[in-house]
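Hi everyone,

Forwarding the result from last night's run.
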Amino acid sequence: MAPGTAGSSLRATYAAGELLDWIDVNSVEQEDVFRWIDENVPMENSAELAQAWAAVLTEAEALMRGDETAYDALDDAGYTLEQPYRRRAG
């Protein structure tokens, strides 16, 4: 997803939901993530990855805070969080 393109916000929100669920079931260290990026992301895509990653992290933080707007966007994106304690109350 290229930030600033049509639908990129919903894709970032969807990816944030996937990231939170993935983190809950996988035990990885930050160095493992960086190593995977180094091994799998071509250098010419690194700037786009940095922008997309920042957008995903921003959305993930909003979801973790329980931001209703972020949860509405997650619903719009069509993603349901797997971990029940991450779902909004009510």
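The two ends are 32 Å apart (CA to CA).

Cheers,
N.
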